[in-house]
Write a structure and sequence with these properties.
homodimer; alpha+beta; Alpha-Beta Plaits; 2 domains; six-stranded mixed sheet; 15 helices; 22 strands; globular
């Protein structure tokens, strides 16, 4: 097997194949991104699943199948070459919706446009789903194809899963992982292809992510047995009738004070950061620049003193949170209509860190509301949520990723955890697999108009060729460890 | 002049004229209700104002004019016959909007339909604005016409004001009253024609109404200087950024606890009910039935023990309130989008009783927010609001109304105050005129689909004929006192 430390020549033929097939890779990327697969709107899902299944076998797999679920189908593929290690590849083929009017390029036109970046012009492919995450999927599959066509076989066996409900909170994935447990249990590690470079080419890597529980609180006269029960009534009745709106305010205010969560035991299962995680935070803190994060979010001040970058990063990585995502009730139109609202609803999410669980947090919030006399306030859990995931920096699959980034003369900034959510807990906690995601490449505006990925890079940002090179290097580095 | 106590024969000719002209009155009512005059949507206002000005002179006035304002025109008319007393008549010609799909009859079709009432079938006229308040306006004008055409002149002089912005909070009326002060200052009392009977024919009269101040509270990252300032950002940022939504919850919860308002000095200018008002409450309490009020509002329980009807009525009449009319912010759609909202807005209203003032209450809320550290939360006053109004039961104009109801063998239930609002304070407090409103007649569903008034009544509910008779009796009773 190729040893990367001595064998750049042995990789040369693969890289040449990648270069020779750039148009093919671009064509296949364009084909996939132009196929709608908008899970929140149930558009194009079945057709896209079939294309992904074909890509699996066309590019690399021995077999692939479209597995029906209670929701959108999951595409499953296998490649077996008798290698020592088996890698589980995770993909998603669904995308967010788009509002065409807000786009500068057609959202499904796969237009190539030049774009200015800090270190020089690049050529970008603009399309919904290009970055999140059809571009990473196709470039990864194309890299596998280049290895297979030049070397005959891959350095690892593969089991590939592409789900079509990531934008819905992956409701069918847990059941799939359970029912396919026999076939997945012999995997050694999990990898999610993604583009981790920022606009300057820097790479942030993450050793896990937070979990999520998302629910609505509903305070209504009908549950309470006081105040209006069926519709908003004339506001003058406040003089002798109760207000579910004020009750909701009271209940919500009992949950938090400033940024402190007052729910009994909410923090009790929060593991403090480990010594190793703290070391990572200290490394990050040395060079961390809060300005770009403030600029992109239009936030002039963090909740933690930003001069103390260590505490700032510790908060991002380590804090469990209780957030109000939305609230509504009563008259919300123009002008001054006086009503006593019969119902107020709030959407809340809690971000979970090890060792919090979704069930535990929901139970504690229920107990808190009951203890404060709000038995009638309903908690409606909106989706299955996600558990947190965690992997160790020392794991082969993680180290292979780190070494690959270093192959490009970059030093990755390694974060103990991403504050966002992903279904990695199914792999890290259920299947007990180490995992990583990446690697080279840059994209932006996922979930927003003008989503893009970089096809031709500049000195700092990898284009499709260096992206695929990074996947090739990663596979050999992982196989060789 | 006709003395009502001996002179039913002298009224007979007027009542005969009313009876002979019922079709004319109905025609003119239909004509006016079918003319749109939807102030919240600025539909048909100018045309309706012209019709009202014509009605004024056609029915009774010597002169009328359409007075332009910064908003919708006000129609002003005068009738002068050298009588001892001058009555100021107040009307509104604007209406609420309608959603045609929700109506059983065309909302602008002026259809006559039979309707079941507790004491027998009636014939109702269904149209937006019929009850609120074009029906009362036309039947009152028609009663004046019948007096004039049979007796040659009215027992009182008249100054008539019809505004076109009542549904918007009467923003132009204060300026009008001020600029027409010279002409209005010689009035002796104010009367607002309305239908006060409920479905069983009972009459509630009111000696005033509460005032109103209506405002929005806006809590935003941009005012606060913390949290997101321009748009909702990804929810995971809660780990290190502040939430304007939680801040709004904290601020609101500082304002009220249960039904107690915690704003410093909010209650300090509340006059306790006078001895006379308390006597009225005791009278009301003896026969007060809370069930219909609970039924119509779909409320199973008052905030005050309903067994104690005296306390219940005291609360309705005497309580100042702070009410949440609506609240919104962040993601309020389907499903589970995680955002950290940059802004939350709440609409609130305070109902004012003597001697609270709008400026005072707004200042106290501002001071309260500042004292609790919420200097950044903005208070946006949405309209001019209304002051409270109060008149004495002993006033001639009020007693004339009471006696008129008794002429129909009914005993009016007299409330010290309506919890709703109206611009009567301009007449009672600015012009210092006693006032009353009524009298016989029934209507319903103002502001709702299928708004109606009763054209042909039953044994208990007055139809157009007895409605007009009540206006005639009222005028003579008032003139004779």
């Amino acid at each position: 097997m190729i040893n990367l430390n001595q064998a750049s020549e042995e990789l040369a033929s693969i890289f040449e194949h990648i270069e020779d097939n750039l148009d093919y890779t671009l064509d296949k990327t364009e084909e996939l991104v132009k196929q709608p697969s908008i899970s929140p709107e149930s558009v194009g899902i079945e057709d896209c699943a079939k294309i992904v299944a074909d890509y699996f076998t066309d590019f690399v797999c021995d077999t692939s199948e479209v597995v029906e679920t209670d929701g959108n189908p999951i595409v499953y593929g296998e490649y077996e070459c008798g290698a020592e290690k088996t890698l589980l590849g995770y993909f998603m083929y669904d995308t967010q919706p788009y509002d065409e009017e807000l786009w500068d390029q057609p959202p499904m036109g796969a237009n190539l446009v030049s774009m200015d970046m800090p270190d020089g012009e690049v050529e970008a492919l603009v399309n919904r789903g290009a970055f999140n995450t059809k571009g990473p999927m196709v470039t990864f599959l194309a890299a596998l194809r280049s290895i297979k066509e030049t070397k005959g076989e891959l350095p690892v066996n593969l089991k590939l899963i592409a789900e079509g409900e990531e934008e819905l909170g992956s409701p069918s994935l847990p059941g799939f992982v359970e029912s396919y447990n026999d076939r997945l249990s012999d995997c050694d590690a999990c990898f999610f292809p993604f583009f981790l470079q920022d606009q300057k080419g820097n790479v942030d890597m993450y050793l896990g992510n937070k979990g999520l529980v998302y629910f609505e609180l509903e305070c209504s006269g009908s549950s309470w047995g006081r105040g209006p029960e069926e519709y908003d009534i004339h506001g003058s009745n406040k003089a002798w009738m109760d207000s579910p709106a004020w009750r909701m305010i009271g209940a919500l205010s009992s949950l938090c004070e400033g940024n402190d969560i007052l729910v009994d035991g909410f923090y009790e299962n929060v593991d403090p950061l480990t010594r190793k995680e703290k070391e990572l935070v200290e490394d990050l803190a040395e060079s961390f620049d809060p300005e770009p994060i403030k600029e992109i979010n239009k936030v002039s001040k963090f909740s933690i003193d930003e001069e103390n970058t260590k505490e700032l990063i510790e908060a991002y990585v380590g804090n469990t949170t209780l957030n109000i995502d939305g609230i509504w009730g009563g008259y919300t139109g123009e002008g001054s209509k006086t009503v006593l609202p019969y119902k107020v609803t709030a959407k809340l999410d809690a971000r979970l860190v090890p060792n919090q669980t979704q069930d535990e947090i929901l139970e504690k919030i229920r107990n808190h509301l009951n203890k404060h006399g709000y038995e009638d306030i309903e908690i409606n859990v909106l989706n299955e949520g996600y558990g947190w995931s965690r992997t160790n920096l020392e794991e082969d699959v993680v180290q292979a990723g780190v070494e690959t980034i270093r192959d490009f003369d970059l030093e990755p900034r390694i974060w103990p955890r991403l504050a966002g959510t992903a279904p990695f807990y199914l792999f890290s906690e259920e299947l007990e697999l180490p995992f990583t995601f990446g690697l080279m490449g840059h994209g932006g505006k996922e979930h927003s108009p003008n989503e893009y990925i970089i096809f031709r890079g500049n000195e700092k940002i990898a284009g499709f060729n260096r992206i695929q090179q990074s996947f090739v290097r990663f596979l050999y580095r992982y196989a060789n460890r």
